[in-house]
Amino acid sequence: HCDGLAPIAGVFRYRDFGREVYDAFHAGRTVVCRDTLGDETLSAAVRAAHAGIGVVSMVDVPLVKAGRLVA
C-alpha cells in the first residue's frame, strides 16, 4: 500500500493476471513478485494487466478450503 493510492475494488479473474498466477493458485502456492513491471519471467500481457490497475509489486495468497481453490 502507498499513501495517496486509489483503492482497487472489483472482481478480478486469476487468468487475467497470467497462467503463472492461475497455476500457482490451483497448486496452493503463494505468488510473490517485487517488480511486476520489470519482471521478465512474466509475459508482456501479465505485466500490462498489473500496470493497468497500478500494481507494481504483489503477494498473492490463494484461499483453499477442503482442497479446493475458493479465492
Report on the architecture of this protein.
With 71 residues, the chain is an alpha+beta fold. Helices cover 24% and strands 14% of the residues. It has helices at residues 19-26, 44-52, and strands spanning 31-33, 58-60, 64-65, 68-69. The strands form 2 sheets. A two-stranded antiparallel sheet has the order 1-2. Strands 3-4 form a two-stranded antiparallel ribbon. 13% of the residues are buried.
Can you give keywords for this protein?
single chain; alpha+beta; two-stranded antiparallel ribbon; 2 helices; 24% helix
What's this, in brief?
24% of the residues lie in helices and 14% in strands. The chain is an alpha+beta fold and 71 residues long. The protein has a two-stranded antiparallel ribbon. It has a two-stranded antiparallel sheet with strand order 3-4.
Mean pLDDT: 86
| Helix/strand/pairing category | alpha+beta
Series of H and E elements = HEHEEE
The share of residues in helices is 10-25%
How many separate helices? 2
Q: Which outline best applies? A: globular
- Can you tell me the residue ranges where pLDDT is under 50 for at least 5 consecutive residues? none
Main sheet summary = 2 strands, antiparallel
Note the gap between the termini.
21 Å
- Rg, rounded, reads 13 Å
Number of strands: 4
**Proportion in β-strands:** 5-15%
Strands side by side in the biggest sheet: 1-2
What is the topological layout?
Layout: H1 19-26, E1 31-33, H2 44-52, E2 58-60, E3 64-65, E4 68-69
Antiparallel strand pairs: 1-2, 3-4
